[in-house]
Amino acid sequence: MATKKKRASNTESDSWVVVAADSVTDTHKNDSDPAFVRLRNPLTNAASLYLLGGGDRRLYEVKAFEEDFHSWFVGQAVQSDGRLLFVTPMDPLYLILPYLIKSGKEGKFQPVNQVVMDEDFPACSRLLSCTHSLASLHHVAEEKEVGGLKFHRYSEERTLSWLKKKVERTVVALKKRGISVGAGVKSSTYVRVKAESEAHEDDYLRYAHGLVSEYVSEELSKALLEHLGLPELTSPKDTEPPSKKRKLSEQPVEAGEDYTRFNSADFERKPPKKMTAAQKTLAKVDKSGMKPMSSFFSPKVKAEKK
Q1: Which of 226, 249, 272 corresponds to the end of one domain?
Q2: Which tens digit of pLDDT belongs to each residue from 96-153?
């Protein structure tokens, strides 16, 4: 469902084009309206924008598709902000997990409402209102009940088992949708170069691992890679997740102080491209005494007549 989202602004551009599921605006009588909130990103540990809908029962991730020099026609007006925002469902346990990991270093069982607390991101406590949040904690933590109250302690073993299932389900989805992975895939179109090429199971596992790793810390991602029995790659391959190749922003969308305005610096600049082997060799050559290439093409100076 494509929708138009208004924002408070002093400029003429006061809306975004949003692609979202019907469940985002599907609210019951007593439900609050969908709300954009700033939460701590589980991968970057920085502020990112998310959306809570259905009376805080559903969590959505906000990503942006951006290309230069694009705009939208909205009614009779031109919307200069040409980004296309995607609002997709997300498992709130990914955002709860970092708080459990942090409290788990103390080695004791604690009430989860005292664990999921953050002065910088007070809205994080609303994650516990999401459907199945509390019921899913046993996937990543040990549980103990005392006097009718439940206490939890982070478990790396349970977490890796839970993430492994996420990876396996992702592999099934990739195969079901016919998404090609492996070294024979063109990064620009995600289709195979040779029809007879067949991806190995490890290619799918590594591909799915890359997707899941966007929602966990780098340390946990490496532990999951080992748990899957996959060797760590020393250089990027074509098996890396599509998020590294698509034109969606590499960083989730950030939000302003009022939770409804996007920052102008939502997207970090991409790091410079790595030099090729030939460029590295050329860079090591001693160029002292050499004339610059431009000197061979500069106009000759005519000698003055005496």
Answers
A1: 249
A2: 999 999 999 999 999 999 999 999 999 999 999 999 999 999 999 999 999 989 999 9
Query: How far, rounded to the nearest angstrom, does the alpha carbon of residue 112 sit from its chain's CA centroid?
Result: 25
Query: What is the total count of domains within the chain?
Result: 3
Same domain, 172 and 160: yes
Residue 24 maps to which CATH number?
2.20.25.530
- Residue 217's domain comprises 156-249
Last residue of a domain, one of 35, 70, 90: 90
